[in-house]
């Protein structure tokens, strides 16, 4: 099929990668946006979610805000930020379409939209992670004389790391893939390669852009797995605890962890709402 | 025996399946009248006072989404529905997006003679094919006759109304840099805001770079004659913007069109492009659409455009009032 | 700032949503363009529901296959994850040469994305059914079909519904990207609003989109509540008693 050979031609042509509008520059732009958005979401969402999880309160609110967050289309958010001038005094440039340093055109708008997009999975996973720490472990810690604060830092947080990092990993890949939508508002990132290609009947180029995005998504997934292994204080201990039952069968892919966490979150919410 | 659960399950399943089936029905038949941007409601179906030439037969119209094209598409839709068809309009950002299904799933397109002929030319003969550059609509249609034939497309009557690309700058830029025509920009580094398919096209970035020798450093796909494009030029994000010669909103925004002194724009008369196969099966299409081509002029087109893009009257309403005034409906 | 007044009929008043005023919330917009919003919402619902139904119809047998032949599970899940990494921006235009500019293109793309979440949810749900319940039912003479539909699925419902909710809400949001190929439901209005700085249109479409997603989510919660009465029957059960035990009582009769 000629489309695939066109795509390969495009990918192998160095000229397409270099320069200010080249794929490498756009890739870096999108990567910077992804990481920054994620960091912002972590700084904003993590403390709240972790603390609520520690207290065991506010789950209903936390999880439902997450649900609503997931319901907001990123495209709509981007559109709103791009044409909005919410505080008049910024003179129509914030967030708007202004170029924000290395983040490119409409960088500010894209950054905020992506950070908001990253919040739901992070909040959900953080809350659930804290709630899943077994009660008897928490009781033992209290029995040992630990204060709430100490318990949080020395027991609950380390134990919640696996699910937590799982959420961060999920958010990372989802934000990366969603960042392509910025192209719909002539924003930054590799999405532009895709739309340019398709709107000029250059399917090879469009496909090339898609392939690069997918490839980096897989790389990020693997990096995330590595990070998770590094941050997991209990790695290796699982074997000692014996086999889990079928329901806990590890499903390590991004979508798998995402589903599991969301599902657990909804069950927790259900228990708190309908709970007996 | 607890009946509540099975009943609830049946209820939910039926609800979901029914909605799914309705959607599936639409997917299968593609019969429903639906214009996402025009807002024609589905009960404008096949109600007409004229004796229907075709009984609610489906016809698909695709068009570019900029205001003028959308409005003309709405005119086509209303004329065809009055003629007894059930029309569906699909709007996309660039010609490229519908050309893979036209002719085929798409039957009619409100086209521009230079645009369609040159598109087919580059598609057939590659990017470096010699473009058709005539400034006369009929000439262009004749030049491209073989390409149209091979593609299975027939052009109906060519209108005297034309809409070519026009490039504009802010009044200030024009005065400060003493620029009144495009050749004044030769050798300058310029950023351009335009339609997504601009890059490489002879009547857009391609022509500006190759013929005028302008160094176009970046093309922002903000749309043809769109507010985002105006804004980018006004804000100074880009120097040059692409709009249409039927755009009447420029003066009030302190924007000026630069003269196309090298005449790189081919004739862009409005013309209905129809799938040859569809036309053969439905010859009445010509009688329904050609009268419109006779009535459209560049002047009244400009006026109608302004009503849609400034007043934001519904494209459908503006189309209808024009068609009624001209006695076409 | 546009000050041009375009020609118009004598009794025409410049509306508050015109380029000249361009207000965010304008009642006249809803009066004049209400039809646009309704059409777009209807298209949006059609596409979302069709995509979810298609997704479930494909996901269900796939999950059963993965459960039955565990060697197939890894490749199946890997393929669906692979689909997930293709950006939606690319998937829709890629399908156009095959399925044309139509709802079908968008529905297929969305169903493929939903598939990932749904297969895992159905699989996880079915796996959450305790073995002893299954064994008890088989011991009572339940054949495989009856076992699946009368015991396993109802017990798996909470997990499956949770996945369905996530899939539905995500699909409503992702449908907007379909505007790239002319079928994005409310996304069409969003795109038009951004391109033409049409504030009233953008605000209305964006808000409606969120409302739609939340509505569908609530609908699913209600459906789940109706379908799993044993999870909220009575108020005095101790927390440690599992929902599964309740369901077993319900189905099998005597307390286990």
Structure, briefly:
The complex is a heterotrimer of chains A (276), B (329) and C (256). By secondary structure, chain A is mainly alpha-helical.
Describe what you observe in this structure.
The complex is a heterotrimer of chains A (276), B (329) and C (256). Chain A has 276 residues and is mainly alpha-helical. Chain A has eleven helices and no strands. The longest helix of chain A has 33 residues, at 23-55. Chain B is an alpha/beta fold and 329 residues long. Chain B has two domains: 9-162 and 267-325, Periplasmic binding protein-like II (D-Maltodextrin-Binding Protein, domain 2, 3-Layer(aba) Sandwich); 165-258, Osmoprotection protein (prox), domain 2 (D-Maltodextrin-Binding Protein, domain 2, 3-Layer(aba) Sandwich). Chain B has 13 helices and ten strands. In chain B, 53% of the residues are buried. Chain C is 72% helix and 0% strand. Chain C is built from nine helices and no strands. Chain C has helices spanning 27-68, 70-85, 88-99, 103-127, 131-139, 144-175, 186-195, 199-227, 243-252. In chain C, helix 3 crosses helix 4 (103-127). The mean pLDDT of chain C is 85. Chains in contact: A-B, A-C, B-C. Chains B and C meet through helix 1, strand 2, helix 9 and helix 12 of B and helix 1, helix 3, helix 4, helix 7 and helix 8 of C.
* Unreliable sequence segments of chain B: 1-10, 16-52
Please tally the β strands of chain A and state the result: 0
Beginning-to-end CA distance, first to last residue of chain A: 60 Å
Largest inter-chain contact set: B-C, 61 and 62 residues
Shape of chain A: elongated
Order of helices and strands of chain B: HEHEHEHHHEEHEHEHEEEHHHH
Major sheet details of chain A: none
Which second-level CATH architecture of the largest domain in chain B applies? 3-Layer(aba) Sandwich
Number of DSSP helices of chain A? 11
End-to-end distance of chain B, in Å? Answer: 64 Å
Q: Work out the count of structural domains of chain B.
A: 2
Helix/strand structural class of chain A: mainly alpha
Secondary structure category of chain B: alpha/beta
Q: Summarize the helix and strand pattern of chain A as letters.
A: HHHHHHHHHHH
Shape of chain B: globular
How many β-strands of chain B, per DSSP?
10
Oligomer: heterotrimer
């Amino acid at each position: 099929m000629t489309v695939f050979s066109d795509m390969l031609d495009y990918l192998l042509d160095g000229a397409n990668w270099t320069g200010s509008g080249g794929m490498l520059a756009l890739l870096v732009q999108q990567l910077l946006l992804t990481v920054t958005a994620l960091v912002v979401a972590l700084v904003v969402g993590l403390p709240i979610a972790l603390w609520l999880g520690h207290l065991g309160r506010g789950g209903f609110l936390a999880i439902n805000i997450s649900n609503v967050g997931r319901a907001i289309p990123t495209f709509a958010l981007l559109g709103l930020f791009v044409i909005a001038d919410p505080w008049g005094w910024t003179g129509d440039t914030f967030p708007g379409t202004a170029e924000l340093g290395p983040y490119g055109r409409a960088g500010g708008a894209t950054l905020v939209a992506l950070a908001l997009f990253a919040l739901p999975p992070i909040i959900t996973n953080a809350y659930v992670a804290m709630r899943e720490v077994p009660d008897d472990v928490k009781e033992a810690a209290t029995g040992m004389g630990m204060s709430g604060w100490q318990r949080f830092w020395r027991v609950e947080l380390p134990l919640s790391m696996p699910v937590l990092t799982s959420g961060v990993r999920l958010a990372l890949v989802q934000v990366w893939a969603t960042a392509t939508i910025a192209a719909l508002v002539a924003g930054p990132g590799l999405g532009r390669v895709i739309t340019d290609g398709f709107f000029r009947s250059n399917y090879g180029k469009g496909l090339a852009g898609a392939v690069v995005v997918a490839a980096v998504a897989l790389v990020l997934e693997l990096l995330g797995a590595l990070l998770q292994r590094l941050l997991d204080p209990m790695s290796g201990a699982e074997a000692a605890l014996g086999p889990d039952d079928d329901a806990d069968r590890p499903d390590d892919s991004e979508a798998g962890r995402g589903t599991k966490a969301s599902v657990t979150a909804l069950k927790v919410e259900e228990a708190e709402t309908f709970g007996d | 025996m607890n009946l509540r659960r099975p009943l609830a399950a049946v209820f939910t399943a039926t609800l979901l399946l029914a909605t799914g089936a309705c959607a599936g029905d639409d997917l299968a038949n593609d019969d429903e009248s639906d214009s996402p941007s025009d807002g024609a409601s589905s009960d404008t179906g096949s109600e007409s006072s004229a004796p229907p030439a075709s009984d609610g037969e489906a016809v698909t119209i695709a068009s570019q989404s900029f205001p003028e094209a959308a409005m003309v598409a709405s005119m086509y839709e209303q004329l065809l529905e009055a003629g007894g068809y059930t029309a569906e309009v699909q709007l996309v950002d660039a010609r490229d997006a519908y050309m893979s299904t036209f002719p085929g799933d798409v039957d009619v397109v409100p086209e521009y003679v230079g645009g369609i002929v040159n598109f087919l030319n580059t598609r057939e003969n590659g990017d470096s094919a010699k473009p058709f550059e005539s400034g006369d609509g009929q000439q262009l249609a004749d030049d491209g006759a073989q390409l149209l034939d091979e593609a299975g497309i027939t052009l109906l009557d060519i209108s005297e109304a034309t809409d070519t690309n026009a490039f504009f700058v802010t009044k200030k830029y024009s005065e400060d840099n003493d620029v009144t025509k495009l050749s004044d920009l030769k050798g300058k580094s310029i950023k351009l805001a335009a339609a997504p398919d601009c890059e490489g096209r002879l009547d857009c970035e391609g022509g500006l770079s190759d013929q005028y020798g302008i160094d176009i450093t970046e093309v922002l796909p903000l749309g043809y004659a769109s507010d985002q494009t105006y804004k980018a030029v006004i804000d100074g994000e880009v120097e040059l913007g692409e709009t249409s010669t039927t755009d009447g909103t420029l003066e009030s925004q302190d924007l000026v069109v630069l003269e196309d002194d090298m005449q790189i724009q081919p004739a862009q008369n409005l013309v209905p492009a129809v799938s040859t196969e569809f036309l053969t099966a439905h010859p009445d299409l010509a009688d329904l659409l050609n009268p419109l081509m006779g009535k459209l002029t560049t002047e009244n087109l400009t006026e109608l455009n302004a009503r849609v893009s400034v007043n934001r009257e519904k494209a459908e309403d503006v189309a209808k009032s024009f068609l009624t005034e001209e006695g076409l409906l | 700032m546009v000050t041009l007044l375009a020609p118009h009929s004598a009794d025409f008043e410049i509306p508050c949503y015109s380029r000249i005023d361009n207000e965010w919330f304008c009642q006249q917009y809803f009066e004049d363009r209400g039809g646009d919003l309704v059409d777009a919402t209807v298209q949006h619902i059609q596409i979302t529901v069709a995509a979810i139904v298609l997704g479930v119809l494909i996901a269900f047998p796939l999950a059963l296959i993965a459960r039955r032949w565990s060697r197939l599970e890894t490749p199946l899940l890997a393929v669906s994850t692979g689909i997930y990494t293709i950006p939606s921006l690319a998937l829709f235009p890629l399908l156009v040469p095959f399925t044309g500019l139509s709802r079908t293109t968008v529905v297929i793309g969305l169903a493929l994305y939903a598939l990932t979440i749904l297969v895992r949810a159905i699989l996880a749900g079915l796996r959450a059914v305790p073995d002893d319940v299954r064994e008890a039912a088989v011991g009572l003479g339940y054949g495989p079909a009856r076992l699946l539909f009368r015991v396993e699925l109802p017990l798996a419902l909470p997990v499956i519904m949770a996945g369905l909710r996530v899939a539905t809400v995500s699909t409503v949001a992702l449908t907007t990207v379909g505007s790239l190929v002319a079928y994005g439901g409310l996304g069409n209005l969003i795109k038009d609003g951004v391109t033409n700085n049409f504030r009233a249109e953008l605000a209305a479409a964006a808000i409606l989109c969120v409302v739609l997603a939340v509505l569908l989510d609530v609908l699913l919660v209600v459906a789940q509540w109706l379908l799993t009465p044993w999870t909220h029957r009575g108020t005095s059960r101790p927390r440690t008693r599992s929902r599964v035990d309740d369901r077993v009582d319900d189905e099998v009769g005597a307390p286990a």
